[in-house]
Amino acid sequence: MAAPGLAAAALLSILFAWNDFFFAVTLTDTNSPTLPIMVATFMSNEGLFLAKLSVLSALIILVPVAIGIYAQKHLVQG
Q1: 3-state helix, strand, coil in the chain (%, to 5)
Q2: Rounded to whole angstroms, what are the CA distances from 54 to 12, 27, 39, 59, 70?
Q3: Is there a contact between 75 and 6 (Cβ–Cβ < 8 Å)?
């Protein structure tokens, strides 16, 4: 009976950790950046690298959407 609530809590915690930018900026090394940090590196004085920025943004969005679609049937059952 508690499975849909646990699934919703797990999905929200994954999304909050996935999109965390400031925690990753302060605690990660420059040799191991997370995806949001890599998006920030595509901005330079010369401008934006739109092709690389678009591909990486699509990858960042794809994982939570796939998890949400997979978990949708468990969330709806509750």
Answers
A1: 75, 5, 20
A2: 24, 26, 9, 9, 24
A3: no
Cα separation values, 75 from 4, 34, 47, 62, 67, Å:
5, 28, 42, 19, 12
Say which DSSP state 32 is in. Answer: S
Cα 31 to chain centroid distance, Å, stands at: 19
Contact between residue 39 and residue 56 where contact means Cβ atoms under 8 Å apart: yes
Expressed as residue numbers, the domain containing 16 is 3-77
Q: 0.85 exceeded by the pTM?
A: no
Joined together, the tokens standing for residue 67 give 């998890």
What is the per-residue pLDDT across 15-74, written as a single tens digit (0 to 9) for each? 777 777 777 777 776 677 777 777 877 777 777 778 888 888 888 888 888 888 887 876
